Amino acid sequence: MKTLREFDDLNDKWALVRVDFNVPLDAAGNVTDDTRIRETLPTLHELSRLGARIVLVSHLGRPKGHESKYSLAPVAKRLEELLHAPVKLASAVVGEEVSVEVDALKKGQVLLLENVRFEEGEEANDPAFSAALAALADVYVNDAFGAAHRAHASTVGVARRLPHAAGLLLQKEVETLLEVTQMPERPMVAILGGSKVSDKIKVIERFLGIADALLIGGAMVFPFLAAQGHSVGNSLCADEDVELAKTIMGKREHHGAKLILPVDLIVADSFSADATPVLIDGVDVPDGMMGLDIGPKTAAEYAGWIEEAGTIFWNGPMGAFEMEPFAAGTKAVAEAMASAPGTTVVGGGDSAAAVAQFGLAARMNHVSTGGGAALELIEGRQLPGIEALS
Question: Is 13 assigned a catalytic role?
Answer without folding.
Answer: no
